[in-house]
Automatic annotation (TrEMBL):
It comes from Terribacillus saccharophilus. This is Aldose epimerase. InterPro entries: Aldose_1/G6P_1-epimerase (IPR008183), Gal_mutarotase_sf_dom (IPR011013), GH-type_carb-bd (IPR014718), LacX (IPR037481). SUPFAM superfamilies: Galactose mutarotase-like. Coiled coil: none annotated. It comes from the Bacteria.
Length: 292
């Protein structure tokens, strides 16, 4: 486990999956990340690559071959190399080196840099195509799970989600049907939503053209995820159909990609939200989480 810290935050990150496991705010003394209790969901903040969400029938075609991939891909279970650790920042890197050729035909390098600034954790992504001739197709996404309630005596219903749309953009909402995505409606307004299990009865809430998602209690504590430039965001908690209850966390997920659509062709280059990199090209993006 790697720790970075500054005057406001102490953050623990696992080398397996380059996954943020804990965020402690030194002023509030609150731990913001989900515990990873496998009774609900055994992950905390996985990185999604080279797909986001589920593939139709669990497979896709690329470069003339058919491949199978589980939901969200394989990088969340990869061992990363650590470099450039500087107290309040650290970089994790993973190079494919032929390891994934049976499930993904492209060679790549992914770097994830975590850096602290006051009460903010910045996450910087760099994806390099190591292909020499063919374009590389991929998606990348984040999946951080935030613990709610944060304090004893609180309930999930004491928290609200606030969505800030991108200026002058029409927000589209999507629904998941057996893990596949389809457009649902275009809301004229995005009211604050009180956290309740029914929100997640049909899986994640998915939107495009969102600039920030804030999860905040009536007492004022919470987290804001700023995702300017990201085409999609998912908001999810594990829903128990037997009891009609939700898990004690909410995920806010910035995505450069999305699950297969219900009418997907299965061709990776035609996949909704897919990113394309020319040979030897580089993709960069970042988001930040503010804890309060």
């Amino acid at each position: 486990m790697i720790r970075i810290e500054n005057e406001s935050l102490s953050v623990e990150i696992a080398e397996l999956g380059a996954e943020v496991r804990n965020v402690l705010h030194k002023d509030t003394q609150l731990s913001y990340m989900w515990s990873g209790d496998a009774a609900y969901w055994g992950r905390v903040s996985p990185v999604l690559f080279p797909i986001v969400g589920r593939l139709k029938d669990g497979r896709y075609t690329a470069e003339g071959n058919t491949y199978e991939l589980p939901q969200h891909g394989f990088l969340r279970d990869a061992a990363f190399q650590v470099s450039d650790a500087q107290g309040d920042s650290v970089t994790f890197a993973k190079e494919s080196n032929g390891e994934y050729q049976d499930v993904y035909p492209y060679e790549f390098r992914v770097e994830i840099r975590y850096r602290l600034e006051a009460d903010q954790l910045h996450v910087d992504w760099k994806v390099n195509s190591l292909e020499k001739e063919d374009a590389m197709y991929f998606s990348i996404g984040a999946h951080p799970a935030f613990r709610i309630p944060l304090q004893s005596g609180e309930h999930a219903a004491d928290y609200k989600l606030h969505l800030k749309p991108v200026q002058d953009k029409q927000v589209t909402t999507y629904e998941l049907i057996d893990g596949l995505i389809q457009e649902k409606e275009q809301p004229a307004v995005l009211p604050a939503m009180s956290i309740q299990a029914a929100l997640f009865e049909n899986d994640a809430l998915v939107y495009d053209h969102i600039e920030e998602v804030r999860l905040q209690s009536s007492e004022g504590n919470g987290v804001a995820v700023s995702l300017s430039g990201f085409p999609y965001v998912g908001i999810w908690s594990k829903y128990d159909t037997a009891t009609g209850t939700m898990a004690p966390f909410v995920c806010i997920e910035p995505w450069f990609g999305i699950a297969d659509t219900t009418d997907s062709t299965g061709v990776l280059s035609q996949k909704a939200g897919i990113q394309k990199l020319a040979p030897d090209a580089e993709f960069n993006s970042s988001y930040r989480m503010t804890f309060f």
